[in-house]
Amino acid sequence: MSQNPNTAEIEREQSYLDFLHERLDPEDEVGHGLCFGRLDRADGSRLYIGRRGLFDGDEPLLLDWRAPAARPFYTATAAAPEGIRRRRRITTRGRTVVALDDELLDPDAADDYGLTGDAALLKAVTAGRGDHLRDIVTTLRAEQDRIVRSEHTGVLVVEGGPGTGKTVVALHRVAYLLYRHRHLATRGVLVVGPNRAFLDYIGQVLPGLGEDCVVSATVADLYPGVTPDLTDPPEVAERKGNAEMAGLIAAAVWSRVTVPATPLDIGFEGHPLRLEPEDCRQAVHAAKRARLPFNQARLVFRREVVEVLARQLAARMEAVVLTDGGEALDGGAVDGSLSAAELKALAAAGVVIDPDDTGPRALLDEDDLAGLRAGLLASPDVHDVVERLWPALTPEGVLDDLFARPPAGEDWLLRRDRGWSAADVPLLDEAAALVGGARATPRAGAIADRAAADRTWTFGHVIVDEAQELSEMAWRLVMRRCPTRSMTVVGDLAQTGAPGGASSWDRVLGPHVGDRHLLERLTVNYRTPAEIMDAAAVLPAVHHPGLTPPTSIRSSGVPPWRLRTTPAALPAVLADLAVAEAPDDGTLAVVTPPAHLAALADALPDTARVLTPDQAKGLEFDVVLIADPARILTDSPRGHNDLYVAMTRATHRLGIVHPGPPPAEISALGVRARPRSPGRG
User: Fold this and answer.
1) Distance (Å, rounded) from C-alpha 515 to C-alpha 671?
2) Over 50: is that where the pLDDT of 18 sits?
3) What average pLDDT score do residues 335-354 get?
């Protein structure tokens, strides 16, 4: 149980908080939640814990939560108190202390402090949900804290079921890494989420922790200048996400290089020049050996072609001028070599000539050759030949051509519509990596602004949330953003819903890091009541027998229910339920298959969020109503995962409305009668 300290204790903590604020720099904007905890140690000393550190000389007035000495605030338990007698959580509103929660860790100190429990954590996880993820740095638990502070330097995979705090772990790990490794701030941290609603939901957490060098984006945001406006059929999106697309794109790029079957004649300032097929072949080989992106390799090819033509032109200019009769004006041989008479004359003049070296003397030096090369590089005729044999490409042009004229056996790629889908973004990025798109013009401003405009920007660390949704091609895009492979990857394979999403971490990460990734698992569900989790656990038990659902630590006392209706009455029934079930201080969402989205959005009150399972991923609401679970199950190959996601979004109550008979997965739920609408008697 919890003990609420008296008013004097609150006043005492308020006085200390005021003292801390006085020590802040006047321009320091840290205000909300500056101090949120206190540790009373066995030696009688105290440590205050907060968002940042404050010192008086070497004495800590406030300890940054990421500092090693602050770790017991998250990890100490009654079984392993780590030298802590009491842990106090301090709740503030603005700069005012409004509540204190004490937890006794030393049973021998019961007489001093009174008996207390874990009230702060349960208060946080049962509180009403707002539009943004609540800042729960004060309730980070031991299992989570161990992962947050992991010193693993490569890819850390955090797997956990609904409500285990995967997102909390990922975001606090960012803050911890930026604290421990200051150099990461110079490159920034990328947070990849499943959709914009999710990113907005978590967007207030990191600024609240004092980090402002973090870029948040969906995969579709990571190709500047392109906004997806098309939707692929699920089967097409899945095939586009397959790693085999990388080979198709590479073939499409390099197929644009041509070696002519016959010689090419080129005119340059009145001189006829000829480019032989073998010359072109050797130039192509030299360019490919450079292992550069296509457009940069094109410059090597052009240089090789120009060199061939420059040498050819120089040889013509070195040749002797002939008379109309075909004789050399100097009396020598037509090829410019010295005659026997000329050699004898030179010998008589005392000039010694090597008898084996009777060829012509060069008239052009290296400066002259450089001038010829420059002239050829500027020649429109030479440019036209290079463009014909090795054209400059754009990523968009490569994919446009691939979709308009797919290779044999790949007719599924055929598309006449202009525009791009979300599944095209990793393909555009792949093409850009092969083609070698230009870097963005450097711009002033924060890291987030600069990185958002530059596809080639690489980050110091990358967080991938709901990582199970990324396709193999999307992983190739993400890996290009972090060559050091410093990543925190969080997800749940039982919630994979996207076409081409992950079924195995080894499969999606193996091609990039082999077996050099560390897997950590979260096992405690803080969010979902046991009644709801027990009902939802049927789905992973059947479809993912190797995955163990997390254990819920709390009960709401309200079992989930189902209600049968008809397809025609579905919108009206849900509208009535949205009113009847609306929490006094919290959020309500209706999760529906895409087919019903528009109709339900029109029928339901503005206070209800209407989302598909994909849009609801990563979010949480006090009350969740699910519409047409049978359609959710059948609308996609991973419909069972989508229903699992829908059933585990609620923190308090869950209801399911099914037109027709219930699917087997929910048939065991208790049946509820339809509520009367406010307008009916």
Assistant:
1) 48
2) yes
3) 54
Q: How many residues in the chain? A: 681
Distance CA 169, CA 488 (A): 9
Side chain identity at residue 402, one-letter code: L
Whether 601 contacts 631, CB under 8 Å = no
Q: If you average pLDDT over residues 223-250, what whole number do you get?
A: 94
Sequence-separated (6 or more) residues with CB below 8 Å from residue 9: 100
User: What is the pLDDT of the chain when averaged over all its residues?
Assistant: 85
Render 485-528 in DSSP notation, one character per residue: --EEEEE-GGG--STT--S-HHHHHHHHHTT-EEEEEE-EESSS
Q: Which of 319, 308, 258 is nearest to 279 (CA)?
A: 308
Structure tokens at 322: 């002939």
Cα dist. 575→19, 605, 621, 678, 681 in Å? 52, 7, 17, 10, 17
**Full-model pTM:** 0.78
56: Cβ–Cβ under 8 A, 6 or more apart, which residues?
Answer: 23
Per residue in 81-137, pLDDT (tens digit) is 889 999 898 888 888 998 888 888 876 665 555 444 444 444 554 555 555 444 444
Report yes or no: 219 and 422 within 8 Å, Cβ to Cβ: yes
List the structure tokens of 485.
Answer: 């492979």
Residue 231: C-alpha distances to residues 66, 305, 322, 415 (Å): 43, 44, 71, 12
Say how far apart CA 189 and CA 401 lie, in whole Å.
Answer: 35
CA dihedral 572, 575, 577, 580 (to 10 degrees): -130
Rg of the chain over Cα atoms, rounded to whole angstroms, equals 35
What is the pLDDT at residue 341?
A: 54
Intra-chain end-to-end CA distance of the chain, in Å: 45
The rounded distance, in Å, linking the Cα atoms of 602 and 599 is 5
Beta bridge partners of 158: 490, 520
Residue 249 is given by DSSP the state H
Mean pLDDT value of segment 580-584: 93
Sequence-distant (6+) residues with CB within 8 A of 583 are 128, 622, 623, 652
Q: What is the spatial distance between Cα 523 and Cα 146, in angstroms, rounded to a whole number?
A: 13
CA distances from 483 to 395, 478, 480 (A): 21, 9, 6
| Pairwise CA distance, residues 436 & 450, whole Å | 19
Is-contact 204 133, C-beta < 8 A? yes
Angle between helices 234-241 and 472-480 (to 10 degrees): 50
* Residue 513 confidence (pLDDT): 95
Of 383, 390, 392, 382, residue with least CA distance to 274: 382
Residue appearing with tokens 């009373």: 40
Is-contact 188 215, C-beta < 8 A?
yes
Strand ranges for 257-402 from DSSP E: 264-268, 271-275
Q: Mind listing the pLDDT tens digit for each residue in 270-303?
A: 888 999 999 999 999 999 999 999 999 999 999 9
Q: Where are the alpha helices (DSSP H) in 349-393?
A: 366-377, 380-389
DSSP string, 517-557: EEEEEE-EESSS-HHHHHHHTHHHHHH-TTPPPPEE----S
Q: Which positions ≥6 away from 542 have C-beta within 8 Å?
A: 640, 665
